[in-house]
Amino acid sequence: MCQDPVTLVSKDNKEYEVSRSAAMVSPTLKAMIEGSFEENKGRIELKQFDSHILEKVVEYLNYNFKYGGTNVEEDDEEDEIPEFDIPTEMSLELLLAADYLSI
Amino acid sequence: MYRSRNRPKKGGENEVKGPNSALTQFLREEGISAENIKQRWYQQSKKRRDENDEKKEDVEDVDDDDLTAENSQVVDDKELDDVETGSDTESGKVEVSYEARMKLVTADSDEEEYETSSVSGTPISLSTANNRKLLAKKKKAAAKIIQNRRRKRKRAADLLDRRVNKVSSLQSLCIGKISENIYKWQKDANESSKLVFNRLRDVLGGVSTANLNNLAKALSKNRALNDHTLQLFLKTDLTKLTFNDCSKISFDGYKTLAIFSPHLTKLSLQMCGQLNNESLLYIAEKLPNLEALYLDGPFLINEDTWEAFFTIMKDRLKEFHISNTHRFTDRSLSNLLVNCSSSLVSFGLSRLDSVSNYALLPQYLVNDDFHTLCIEYPFNEEDVNDEIIINILGQVGGTLRTLVLNGCAELTDSMIINGLTAFIPEKCRLEVLSLEESDQITTDSLVYFFNKVELNKLTKCSFRRCLQLGDMAVIELLLNGAKDSLISLSFNSLKELTEEAFVALACPNLTYIDLGFVRCVNDSIIQMLGEQNPKLTVIDVFGDNLVTENAKTRPGLTLIGRQSDSI
What we know:
The complex is a heterodimer of chains A (103) and B (567).
Chain A: E1 6-9, E2 15-18, H1 20-23, H2 27-34, E3 43-45, H3 51-68, H4 75-78, H5 91-101
Parallel strand pairs in A: 1-3
Antiparallel strand pairs in A: 1-2
Chain B: H1 22-29, H2 34-65, H3 70-83, H4 87-107, H5 109-112, H6 128-160, H7 170-187, H8 190-204, H9 209-221, H10 227-230, E1 240-243, H11 251-260, E2 266-269, H12 277-286, E3 292-296, H13 303-312, E4 319-323, H14 330-340, E5 346-350, H15 361-364, E6 372-376, H16 386-396, E7 402-404, H17 413-423, E8 432-434, H18 443-452, E9 460-462, H19 471-479, H20 482-485, E10 488-490, H21 499-503, E11 512-514, H22 523-532, E12 538-540, E13 558-560, H23 563-566
Parallel strand pairs in B: 1-2, 2-3, 3-4, 4-5, 5-6, 6-7, 7-8, 8-9, 9-10, 10-11, 11-12, 12-13
Family (chain A): Belongs to the SKP1 family.
InterPro entries (chain A): ELC1, SKP1-like, SKP1/BTB/POZ_sf, Skp1_comp_POZ
Protein name (chain A): Elongin-C
């Protein structure tokens, strides 16, 4: 399987790179990447989201991939997951994005 | 109109919020915490020490003056004591005794945590560098212990919250943040919050209904659902709405809800203590499509209003569940049945202290599609007896999908044999069967029932506290077709069960099982259940003291209530 990073494009054409495996956290993105459409080339346009929202989404994808993945072995690590910070003013829009991406 | 006189103002500090107890809330408000007490102790002892240091310096000054004869001063002191003079020497004595106390304290392990490196007097700190190192080490160790403790506590709390995934989803994080802020906003100026909510509603317009329901749940959990936050849900196209904690919604709030959500077909209001006569009738009139109503705790609604309500809802009400009100009486029940029984397909009564005439039910429950019957915790156990249930089953047993008879302790084997087995068809549609606390039901009747009736649609089954049930009942249930469909099972408190019962417990779809207070459950049974049930994610093991931290579970399976996790 191709391991290139995936590029997410926001409303104002800003691009965010995220590793393919981190993007797979989102079932929506997974379907896009694995589907037979243009998106499987690694460039996904999410034009409905502002860049600051997308930036946070990418941050969460990496966060979830890092801490939520299958590397569960060490018990001690388990408890040291930092909190994922969400700025108040962003929470509603972020909820919409999270809803769309099912994360 | 119901208004409590001593209810605190909106957004007041002394509201019990979330999973905290009232005591915790009180202590927090009063600023009482272990940390505070410790700090105060610190400050006091430091102050005392400083004072003593000052006095000591004075004494030393005096000592410097007559370096030559300390002994003579003591002698002098003694002499002077007789004449009762010299406050300076008095304080010297106090100081000595204080230091002596501090010396003693060092040997006391309880106090060690609070020791500081500068234990005032010179006599103790012979090798200060050494002491400091030791203290630093101790501090480190203490910090580690505290951190470990905190970690353990957090893990236990997570377990109790059934938080199986370590990383919560972004959606739940956002919803948590929103509800937290809604609470804050509403505490701030009431004027400005109105605008905020209008904006909120605009933005939330695009959120899926599932998330809107999640938001309702999150708000209810934080006890933050009130007239203000209610506005988030005033979407005109919403058809189903569930509020799990309406205790802060005023009668006006319910009216607003009825006006702005005219398409509602199903409405569930739990803990709706402020729902009054006027607003119930308003709901009935303004929601033309309403056909399902679930109410918990509507104790302000009186008999007359119930009558009026059922008259308005005549032939329209399809689902009606009510619990926790003493004003719903036999008369109200008969009003309901007379007006709405022909359309009623789902019906539930729970903890209604003024209802005793359950014998009315059989003749009225006649709808061909009747599918849900819940009769729980009658005030007098004798009121719900075998005969009544058998008669009801005779009417609607063929179509029943949910049967909940929790807390009807009067029921016996006769109900199982002459009711369930006789009237439920061989290929039955039963999906939920709950007979909690029926302690007169025995293994034999259930074996007979499971043997005769094929329960291949059963997903949820609870025999919690049916104390007489033994292994054979469980084994027979699992030999039945139910084995493949079961998702949730409760054998809580079935003390007669032995390991034998669990050997056969291999259900491909089972996700949850409650084995609390089933004393025979041990580590090996837990391991076996994990292996035999691939989809099992949660096992409740409260009170099972044979389940230890050594229990082997496969990844994805969580044990909740294990003693070693919380102590």
